[in-house]
Write a structure and sequence with these properties.
The chain has eight helices and no strands. By secondary structure, the protein is mainly alpha-helical.
């Protein structure tokens, strides 16, 4: 892949199951860092902040994104609804601060999780693109 846009298109072209697999792998890879910065919640608040920042990037949760979230996290619709209600715009700042402290590889893992989530509906909005750029910069 030659450009950032090529990377985005690559993820958009992956099928749903491939994206779920990548996201699950990324969750495993990023959880130790989430636990390190969020020990009181065993890393889950940080992980939710990462995922919810993706949901909030363009202000809407598409049906495919909802299904994707449930599949990756292994949660039901009621839990998904409760998680979505936790979102605040400050979560993006929390995620940016978190990413700033990561190694290059773990920034990539965090970006992979976001990319998989944001690509599952086969499009990435300009706002979503901006979120990915913030994480990897």
């Amino acid at each position: 892949m030659n450009t950032f846009e090529d990377l985005l298109q690559y993820y958009v072209n992956l099928d749903f199951d491939q994206l779920v697999a990548r996201a699950k792998n990324a969750v495993e890879a990023v959880m130790p860092d989430c636990k390190r910065v969020d020990p009181e919640n065993n890393g889950y608040f940080m992980l939710c902040s990462i995922i919810l920042s993706a949901v909030g990037a363009d202000g809407k949760l598409t049906p495919l994104e909802d299904e994707f979230l449930r599949e990756v996290m292994g949660i039901d619709r009621e839990t998904t609804d409760k998680l979505i209600q936790l979102y605040t715009p400050e979560m993006v700042d929390t995620v940016n601060d978190f990413a700033d402290k990561l190694s290059r590889q773990n920034k990539i893992n965090t970006a992979t999780l976001l990319l998989a989530f944001l690509s599952c509906d086969e499009k990435i909005s300009p706002e979503e693109t901006g979120l990915i750029k913030k994480i990897i910069d």
